[in-house]
Amino acid sequence: MAGSIYAHALEGRTPLARLHPVTAMVWTAAMVVMSFASLDLRLGLGLVVLQIGVALIGRLPLRQIFVVLLLVLPLTLFITVIQGLARPGEALLSIGGLSLSREGVLLGLAITVRVANLALATTNFFASVHPVRLSMTLTRIGLPFKYAYTTVLALRFLPLVLGDLRNIQNAQKARGYDIERKNLFVRVVKIMPLMAPLIVTVLRRAHSIALAMDLRAFGAFPERTWWEEVASPGRADWAVWSLSVLLLTGYLLLGFTL
Amino acid sequence: MNGEEITGAITTRNLSFRYSRAPEPVLKGIDLEIEPGCCVAVWGSAKSTLLMALGGVIPHLISGHMEGEVLVEGLDTHSTPLRELAKRVGIVLQDPENQLFNLTVEHDVVFGMENLRVPREEMGRRLERVLDLVGLTPLRHRPSSQLSGGQKQRASIAAVLAVEPKILILDEPTRELDPLGTEEVFRVLRRLKEDGVTIVLVENDPGQIAPLADRVLFLDDGRVSVDASPRQFYCELREDTRIRMPQVTEAFFRAPPPGEQDVPLTVEEGERAYGG
Amino acid sequence: MADREQLVDSQPGVVDEERIPLSKMSLNVLPGRTDTIGIVSAVMLALAMTGLLQFGERLDTLITGGLFPIAGRVIAFTLVGLGTAMFGAVPGLIVAWVNPFIATATGTSPIAPFFFLTNGLMVVAALLAGRLVRKNIVSFKYALVHTALCAVFLTLAYIPLHVLYFQLPVSQMLIIYAVQALVELIATPILLFSLLRVIKSAGFVEE
After folding, report:
1. How far apart are CA B202 and CA B182, in angstroms?
2. Which of B87, B197, B238, B259 is paired with B60 by a 20 to 30 Å CA distance?
3. Domain C8-201 fold
4. Residues of chain B neighbouring C9 (CB-CB closer than 8 A)
5. Whole-angstrom distance between the N-terminal and C-terminal Cα of chain C?
């Protein structure tokens, strides 16, 4: 796991936490649309700089964010190579009998930047919006609480399930079965000795958890009260909304003209 | 019974229960009166099933054939919705991990209150009270996953107590815990007993049960064969190898000291019995 | 009302052997089992999927940089197919969508938002497969039909992603799609069917 980006939001120390979660959603949506909108490398890089700036203002964990970006590397390297091979044009680089065209490589880089912007947008979002306040907001905009709550449940029990998997892996290793050492393709099917016990374990856990939740009146009433508070949108929120719309419009216009 | 008398009381009348696919009932014709503020420990077979019936889990969440009735504070568990029972009975289960489903201790404690639509100001007051009661105030904002087993069970107890039930049912709460964790949990239970909370529990550690329980029940073949104070309980069942008793009590039966001495349940009592 | 069965006091105080009825595909598939057990089980299956995908991920990153996830899709097809078969449409969607949510919220997979669409299609595939198979969900036929539908839907869904977003040349992609589909059609039905049988014999199936 790259790291728990959301853990930062949990601590609530970022100034961005003062914004209403819907504001964060609107901003992020704008960023995501922008990342899709253009393949111009300059615009894309400009957006990257903007998003890193947001992370800095929000005191978000930059190192973790860069780790996330690094995860993007294998993907984008692969794409760049494919583009370089596939697109015609003057050769930038020649390896063996294959040559990578300049156009292809630039296109690959533009796509890399596109993916980086997507990653930055979502990471910034989850590093600043508290998961409980997120589920509250989802409920308020219409998703029934019992479904909105699955986000919290998932984050809470993820480490446990990963631990269960590790235990099963160790138990199987002790029996001489080690998935790490098997042939790559055979590995896919041979995942059964891990999959089956994990599923059974996890379903039993689910029963236990569901019982405890029912005993604490989960779903007892259609509405509920909240301990967490989400302040109504204030001036900062309106400012961010306006900025999102302006940036998006500007970006799209520039994208068309460049 | 008038209103005051039934708060914190559970009554069963001819309670029988058979699981859907089982040929035999596991509970047969059980009559129990549990007074408010009483602490009852349960031993024997089908004890978890009895606890689930006392708390209303049977029949609401577990299917089977139930006969007779269980009255929780005068309310029939058959006809009362679970959310009404949840306000009166809190249930703590054995696995510390699966009873905390939120991201921090605080969120777990308020969860039940939120579901039952307790107003926010009231939540704050109760949150502080129960955290103080279980001794977890400094860990309020800690992610649940970072707690020790004993702390987790205490957090679960706090979460259950936040809705202010007068009755607490615990099904082997210290089974997954080390001795330190066990002691932490029982310290909380002793405090709750002082506060007048009715406690029904299944617990394997006789050393902890003996000083806490007012009554000990033994379930044999679906019926209550013994219902007595701890001292009488161990006296009556001292020949029964299924019973585990405090070490000091066992020692007392094996090598009784001279003279008429009360059966000791704790080390202190043992010292008095032997030391004089 | 939830429908749990059998707390077995096999040893003093031990509570185990819980049974989750498999919702038969012929009834109550839409919306499926939306009580607490259905929802929580679906979340847990999604987390199991997340864990298992870690294995697949290393494989896929090695081969194609994560762009053409073969092992990942096999695992996803299997688990979404299982979740939908066991609990119906809404829990199936929970299994399908919790995983990209987690991947994004923990920063594990930057292109995770795409998986909301692709995983959602797997639920549709599972529901259709269930319809075609009717009574017997625990069957190789269900597993095979589900996989075939998943392979078709996902290949179609990935075309706009690859062509428009990643600007990849379609003609070359067809070979890769074919390889993916082949591996998926072999591996997934085996895994899914085996899992359904294990679940049944572990007592999680309603007779």
Report:
1. 13
2. B197
3. Arp2/3 complex 21 kDa subunit ARPC3 (1.10.1760)
4. 26, 45-49
5. 19
The pTM score is 0.89
Residue among B14, B224, C18, B223 at smallest CA distance from A200: C18
pLDDT at A77: 80
For range B227-242, the mean pLDDT: 87
Residues A235 and A126 occupy one common structural domain: yes
- Record: contact C165-A78, CB cut-off 8 A: no
Q: Which of residues B149 and C3 earns the better pLDDT score?
A: B149
**CB of A230 within 8 A of CB of A22?**
no
Fill in the DSSP letter of residue B148.
Answer: -
CB within 8 Å: A154 and C47? yes
Cβ-Cβ contacts under 8 Å for B276 (sequence gap 6 or more) = none
Q: Does residue A18 lie within any of the structural domains?
A: yes
- CA dist A154 and A162 (Å) reads 12
Structure-token pair, residue A170: 């160790």
- With cut-offs at 50, 70 and 90, classify the pLDDT of residue C5: very low
The nearest alpha carbon in chain A to B142 belongs to A11
- A49 and A126 share one domain: yes
Identify the domain containing residue A163 by its residue range.
145-215
Q: Which chains touch A (3 or more CB pairs under 8 A)?
A: B, C
pLDDT for the residue numbered B138: 95
Domain ranges of chain C: 8-201
- Provide the domain count of chain A: 2
State whether C15 and B48 contact (CB < 8 Å): yes
Looking at the structure, tell me whether residues A178 and A253 fall in a common domain.
no
Distance CA A85, CA A94 (A): 10
- Tell me, what amino acid is at C20? I
Closest among C151, C207, C161, C154 to C182, alpha carbons compared: C151
Query: How many other CB atoms are there within 10 angstroms of residue A40's CB atom?
Result: 16
With the C-alpha atoms ordered B253, B254, B256, B257, is the resulting torsion angle positive or negative?
Answer: negative
Higher-scoring residue by pLDDT: C60, B68: B68
| Shortest alpha-carbon distance between residue A242 and chain C (Å) | 25
SS3 of chain C: CCCECCCEECCCCCEECCCCCCCCCCCCCCCCCCCHHHHHHHHHHHHHHHHHHHHHHHHHHHHHCCCCCHHHHHHHHHHHHHHHHHHCHHHHHHHHHHHHHHHHHCCCCCCCCHHHHHHHHHHHHHHHHHHHHCCCCCCHHHHHHHHHHHHHHHHHHHHHHHHHHCCCCHHHHHHHHHHHHHHHHHHHHHHHHHHHHHHHHHHHCCC
ipTM associated with this complex: 0.89
What are the helix and strand counts (H, E) for chain B? 12, 10
Q: Which domains does chain B have, with CATH numbers?
A: 3-245 (3.40.50.300)
Residues of B with CB below 8 A from C13's CB?
47-48, 94, 171-172, 175, 202, 204
Give the HSE-up count for residue C31: Cα atoms under 13 Å, Cβ half-sphere. 9
Whether A80 and A199 share a structural domain: no
CB B230 within 8 A of CB B247: no
CA angle C157, C163, C168 (to 5 degrees): 125
Higher local confidence (pLDDT), A147 or B20:
A147
Contact C34, C86 (CB under 8 A): no
Whether the ω angle into residue B59 lies within 30 degrees of 0, i.e. cis, is yes
Would you tell me which residues 83-102 of chain B have a C-beta closer than 8 angstroms to some C-beta of chain C?
93-94
Q: Please, which chains are in contact with C (at least 3 CB pairs closer than 8 A)?
A: A, B
The pLDDT-based confidence of A76 (bands split at 50, 70, 90) is confident
Give the rounded distance of the alpha carbon of A129 from its chain centre.
13
**Assign residue A151 a region: left if phi > 0, alpha if psi is -120 to 50, beta otherwise?**
alpha
